[in-house]
Amino acid sequence: MSMLGRSDLSLPGATKKHTVRSPQKRWAPGSSGGLTRREGSGRYRAVLLSAASLLIACLIWQLLSTFIFNPFLIPPPLEVIRTAIPMLISGEIFADVRISMVRVLVGFISGSLAGIVLGVLLGRIRLLHDLLDPIMELLRYLSPTAMIPIAVIWFGIGEMSKYFLIFWGTFFIVLVNTTAGVWRAPITRQRAAECLGANRLQIFVMVVVPSAVPYIVTGMRVAMASSFMSIIPAEILAADSGIGYLLQKSSLLLQTNRIFVALLTICILGFAVDRMFRFFVNRVLTRYMFYIAMT
Question: pTM for the complete prediction?
Answer without folding.
Answer: 0.76
